[in-house]
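Hey, sorry to bother you again with one of my protein questions. There's a protein on my desk that I can't quite get my head around. No rush at all, and the record is pasted right below.
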Amino acid sequence: MKRVFSIILIILIFFAGEITGYWLKTIYDAVKAAYYWDQYLYGLEKPYREDIYGGDTPEETLQMFLDALRKGDIELAAKYIDVDHREKEYEYLKDLKNSNKFNEIVAEYSKLKKDEVLSEDLVTFATYRNGELFLLVSLERNTFTNKWKISEL
């Protein structure tokens, strides 16, 4: 009887060890996955966290953008555009600068007036011709730096 009890005890200890090992491996895998997920998210957020160009208000950012355009510095002007749209809008500005309409468009951008406050983090500026929307620029707040960025030209 003592021998049967000893065998049952050994089997129970073995299974308890297996269950504990499985449980610890599951916890380890979950912690490891969470760590890698955090690293992945940090990598995605990094450009936004490091994007320091822009004003404390949408108007200030728009003014900085316009000042850069008036100087012909499209590299600086592009820094006021949000990370997601910067490359595309930089190409647009570069093409615009090489066209004969650059000064005309910069003058039109200078006429922008606040159009709508869509939320505390999204504002649009617009110009109208003959009652029709002619030019629309959207600005969004970078929630990591609290700087306003142009999100759409």
